[in-house]
Amino acid sequence: MRGITKRFGGMTANDRIDFQVEKGEIHCLLGENGAGKSTLMKVLFGLYRPEEGNVEINGQPIGQMSPRLAYQLGIGMVHQHFMLVNNLTCLENIILGNEPGSAGVIDKKAARRLVQELSEQYRFDLDLDAPIRELSVGMKQRVEILKTLYRGAQIIILDEPTAVLTPIEAEQLLAILRGMRTQGKTIIFITHKLKETLDVADRITILRGGKSVALLGAAQASPEELARLMVGRDIAFEIEKPPRGQGDVVLRVEDVRLLPNAQATVTFDVHAGEIFGIAGVEGNGQQQLEEIIMGIGRSRTGKLLYRNADLMEVPPRARRDLHFAYIPSDRLKQALLSGFSLEDNYLLGNQYDAQYVRRGIVQKRYLKTCTQRMMREFDVRAVDSLQSAGSLSGGNQQKFVLAREVGKDPPFVLACQPVRGLDIGAIRYIHSVLLRLRGEGAAILLISAELTDIFQLSDTVGVLYKGEMMDIRKAEDFDTQTISLLMAGKKGEEPHAVQA
Amino acid sequence: MPFKHKNRMPPVVGRLLYSIAAIALSLVTAAVVMLIAGYAPVKAFGAMLNGAFGSANAVANTLSKSIPLMFTGFAFAVANKAGIFNIGGEGQLYLGALASTVVALALNGLPRIIVLPAAILAGMIAGGFIGGLIGFIKARLRINEVIVAIMLNYIVSLFTSYVVNGPMKAAGSMTAQSEAIAGTYLFTKVIPKSQLTTALYLGIGFAVLIYFLFRSTRIGFNIRAVGENPEAARPAGINIPLTTIGVMTFSGMLAGMAGVTEVLGKYGRFIDGFSPGFGFTGIAVAVLGANNPFGILLTSLLFGALEAGSMKMSYVANVSTNMVMVIQGLVILFVATPEIVGQLIARRGEKSDG
Amino acid sequence: MDNLQYIFSFNIVLTTLRFAIPLALAAVGATICERSGIINLGVEGMMLIGAFGGVLGTHMSGSPWFGVLFSILCGGAMGLIHAVLSIRFKTNQTVSGVGINILAQGLTVVLARVVWHTDGISGTVAQLPNVSVPLLKDIPVIGALFADQSPFLYLMLLIVFAAWFVMYRTKAGLRLRAIGDHPQAASTAGIDVKKYRYLAVVICGMLCGMAGAYLSIVQNNLFVNNMVAGRGFMALAANIFGGWNPLGSFLASLLFALAQAIRINLSLPIPDQFVQMVPYALTLLVLIGVGRKAKAPEASGEPID
Question: Which chains are within 8 Å of C by 3+ CB pairs?
Fold first, then answer.
């Protein structure tokens, strides 16, 4: 692939990327979230069309790629979200769309024979008659891989395949991939994890910020080198905030299991007047943590202590009554009613507050005044308070959510990916608000995949990987190398646990 | 929907424009059908208009026919605000009708001030019970409410049919109906010798209540939030199962009222099979009225007019009264398909620019 | 004939089969349609149109077989309308089904008036004659199955079997099952989801039309307003009760038909209406009992772009 550029709106996901893969190798495409790895592969597979650049297979340039053409050329892709039909068996899912047989009737024996042969050849060990819904995630993934092999794929792309696997299943997958390599297949493996990359790759391409930054052979790669390339030296450790006044513990997450296959449970404290930042690549338990804290999800073990009261089994409403502020990771899905007016949206989460609703009746005039005042204070650009929330720009939507949540002087703030997809101005503004709240004594839990976010704001930082808290330290005790290693799954040399 | 983002026009107006377009399309299609069948559409529609509004009695007829449709329309609309499809209106109204009959007959002898409200209340509770049951099954058992409602429709209407064919059958009567309820317990007639009763005022009153509920109360807000985006409603503290059951109960109560107004207003007794599908027509009324209570008052009036005018149309233009059902069916199909209507509006807009 | 004697006579089998014919045809149609992911509440209306179409066709041509063909055409046309609305225009399928039912009820009576100048009832037409299978009818006891039965009986059995075969043994059937569950997966596998959905809904309409024709020109010789009398919804219930597959739909139809047969031919101490409730109550219980494990197509009612 040469000079591939792919843009989505104003955002450049792939910036003149050159990428090449040799036959019969396992090639890892390494990078953080948003580095552009998935996008690049979707261009290869024909799901996206690049603005610039071209693709050559075996020296032949390809004009317009499409999934069907990709399959004809021998390229197959295993996506992160499985395309499997639950009520059909493994065999049926594999042959779907390409069933052997004549006159419309399926030749079951031929199908079974073909698939069984493939399964044995690559040591997949699948029960072909089991319905998909009964299979473990690892098994489902094998079905997906077998699907591509059945269709004759020679080049197989896997998008973050171990994201959903247990460590044992991941090992098994890597073994299968090695077996496939022996049989002459070429494998492209998208990942953000160092260990796997080092375990299985022949060559490694590292993407960062939409650009290709390096191509290494397995021999040249070390964890430190890879981590450095993945993350770069761009982290500005701005510690120009007033020293933290560490107050009491406001929220304590104790012994909570975030993911079913996590090796350990998670425990940490958030103090008043402190910003506790949780770094980590998305998909490592952040969503679950968010849900548990807000009362939408649960953990079978552990406690969620708010000033010594256990909120674990308590419904979400309690958080509202306690004036928690919640900035969710997906504002449109979780914080806003996009078809409703801004005034109505201001009421969301505040409906049980006596200021806004008295004896069941909404105090409309007061609501309007409040909404308008908050919109001014937080610089939310809209025609007026009656405009629909869905029609605001992303930045203004986020500012609005912030205005609503934070306007009530919250003792605790949960901010998840608060500046995702926003421009510099909006980002700076939101940062300043969070710092102001910190100064006023709020306890803030910040979950973000952006390291700049984390380090510009946090006093204490923890790193989440596969549902485990890898380490917790004061922000100033981290350096680029350590943090990137932790985010990619390798524990640092000096274990430092900072819990006041 | 085109008016959501750019325009400052309140969305309800936009939806009502759709509805008008849908009605127009249906009338045009019906006219075409009539032409093909050899009828004269203009004559037919003229007769219908006459039969619906041509005299005081006609208007009274129209209004009285719109009353049950108002209530089943409210029922569907209210549930729809929460994103729920209550197509169980038929069963809910039958049980409501039966309950109010039972109470009115059982309390025979007591003063009107006790009996009438009691009968109304009984009807509402009965309808609400079925609605709440559907809501419960949906909320706790996660079963799709549409199938459950259809099954319950048959179970309940068969049950009421049994009751009025058996234990409650009027002595010596040939038809399956209950004893007549004492006249003092019935709704007062607004126009004497017509079927129009004060139940009309109840309908208008409920419209105001529903409007107020959704515009100004927390409960209404919660319901709308659940309908718009349940994922955002949860962290906001709204109890979704409770809201579901609550809305469905209220919806059932409204459908039950449709049965009550027929029993205590029009017939004065429970007659087997008295509903010509009010529950289903109510769906058309609600969708056409953009789920807005005042819109529903208008659309139920329209449908009432269609019904009232159909006899005259049949008499004058020789078109079967069931043509009204054809129009109703077409209206449902057109109004449930915003894309068709939207495309036609857009195309007409282009033509006028070009 | 007293109750006990009746139950153990072969007659009940015959009566049950006869009542089951329209149910099974419509239920299999519903199965096919629902399996493709399209909800079809308009089964009742499609059957009604078919019933009318059967009478009209026979009236126009004098031949009941043509009437059957015409009924299939009419049902298919209704199915096409639902398909276009649901697939191309992404109408809400529940509401559109209700609309079809109301439209059908109106249209049939209006057209009956046009043709026969009567109110809600058509003129009489030729009925589809019964047949007898020469040798088989002489077998003791079961021979009655082959003596003087409507060809619809054999057609129904054939269709049930064909539907089962197609669904579980052919490519089209596999793809259909995939589409209702996970249309994106099917689409990624290169299957034209829309085409299959159109086919499924139209076939459903055709089968419902046929079912309706049985009611009008086989069991009777005319059309009466609303003669389907809820059998369409009963067919939907049969599909659910049978677990969304042709064999299950058939067996459920038999069960519901048995209830009908017992109701008509037995003098039971149970009130008539309660026996009529049986299919609906059973289906409701099954739904509640099986609950979330019910194997309904997972992508039911969701339009695909």
Answer: A, B
